[in-house]
Amino acid sequence: MPFSQSYPLQRHPRTGELYIQLPPPYDRIIITPPRREDVPHIVAILNSDPVKRWLDGLAFPYLESHGEDWVAQTKEKSDAVLHELRVAEEEQPRGPFAAVSGCPVSCLRGINDDGSDVYLGAIEFSRCNFPDVRDRAEQERLASRNESRKTGDPEIVWCIGYYLTALLHGQGVMTCALRTLMQSWVIPRMGARRARAETIIGNRGSIRVLEKLGFGIVDTVRIHKVTSAGQLIEGFHILWWEEMDDSAEAAGATGQ
């Protein structure tokens, strides 16, 4: 197989998109960039009670205009990473793999028997802005330093956000999808060695997903509040993951 800077992404035979396929028994699920036609499905999932009760910060009700904005912004980020890969292909056609600034695929899709697919949810990796730090000046300092780090810097702290249609909750899909992205892209191609996530207190399903990936609760912020979805919560758990050894070193990744 010839060397490719986009490895392990594959080319979708119908849409031409690059994608990552989950391993068995979830190999009927792929992860691609967003599409404009995803918007009605995004709106339906995010407004469903089993999903929105564990989210805070999004607009509710979540409207098509919000979905359109998310798709546009996420596609812009995806396109930027794909551009980095094309440049790396021209400059380093025989390798090594170049470090890139993000993950170009984010949307989970289930493949139907006729080859069509259905939107299932999304995963996002972004540079952390430390929203749990209560001292505003310190929060801004940490976020600014994190944002200023060069592509591929192992000191970057990444934040993870995700959601999945309630029809697939409790079936191991999100655990597999997150593990696949982290092992095949986020660690080797983005140089990620540190990540954090927040879960609303009581969201045991999300905590189990993250713990299976090696995250652990490092802090609990107790604050009674009503979320943007109208749910009364007791606060948030902060979970942390860090790669402690050299086993996941990027295969020759170089910062751009």
Instruction: Name the helix and strand elements from N-terminus to C-terminus, one letter apiece.
Output: EEEHHHEEHEHEHEE
**Structure summary, number of beta strands:** 9
User: Residue ranges: pLDDT <50 for 5 or more in a row?
Assistant: 247-256
Q: Quote the beta fraction.
A: 15-25%
Percent range of helical residues: 25-40%
Adjacency order of strands in the biggest sheet = 1-2-3-4-5-6-7-9-8
**Radius of gyration of CA atoms, rounded to a whole number:** 18 Å
Task: Give the terminus-to-terminus CA distance.
Answer: 25 Å
Q: Which structural class do you get from the secondary structure elements?
A: alpha+beta
**Quick one: overall form?**
globular
The mean pLDDT is 93
Main sheet attributes: strand count, strand direction, barrel closure: 9 strands, mixed
Give the count of helical stretches: 6
